[in-house]
């Protein structure tokens, strides 16, 4: 009898309650206008196969600012350059944070990412360090030889692969070598060493892990549209991201430990970005004089 009551509540009462909560009028009367959506799904099915075109057409009916619901997530669409300029000039602090997809919440990765971290002291400090140590002309000019070396290595990898495939019709995955070269550029800027080698097992594993992580991060996820379903992880995206991100962090931790040991042994000749971060972390832990 008790189980019958539970089943009845879940199949009948819960959907009715959710429908009432969805269709009730919002308390905020100042919300922008927008089309009415379906319960639970909102306006998702009204956007069609070309959402950008559909949203542009909404401007003629609702004006330059349109209110939509993507599942249970409220979304405001700005369809005017003048309105966008006003928002980012006068209300930038209210809209400065990015929406974080559930996949990027794995192991709280987004909190340490410059591109995803919430606006605050940490984000401002990291932006200042990157601006001063990585994105200035002097630093960029100093790394020309590093980028050239990585590109030359990439061309050698492609040439070697092409020579080994003579007589076969299999194509060369140029994107893979570009991806590996990009990681080696980042590795030399961060750790003063190549991160991957296409012929090594570690390099191949690292490439496959990062590739899967990018695919998982860009894959449509129902948990992003219906946040109350995150706990169930219906598509298994969060579970897979936890697995792959854990492996990537283990590899990155190994790189960092090797770097610190080389630095202590006096083998490190040039200063890289990891040295900057370690110096900054050390300066925070030093007692005030």
UniProtKB/TrEMBL annotation:
Organism whose genome encodes this protein: Forsythia ovata
Family: Belongs to the cytochrome P450 family.
Transmembrane segments: 6-23
Keyword check for Transmembrane: yes
Pfam families from the UniProt entry: p450 (PF00067)
Gene Ontology MF, one: monooxygenase activity
PANTHER family linked: CYTOCHROME P450 76A2-LIKE ISOFORM X1, CYTOCHROME P450, FAMILY 76, SUBFAMILY C, POLYPEPTIDE 5-RELATED
Source lineage: Eukaryota, Viridiplantae, Streptophyta, Embryophyta, Tracheophyta
Keywords: Heme, Iron, Membrane, Metal-binding, Monooxygenase, Oxidoreductase, Transmembrane, Transmembrane helix
Protein name listed in UniProt: Cytochrome
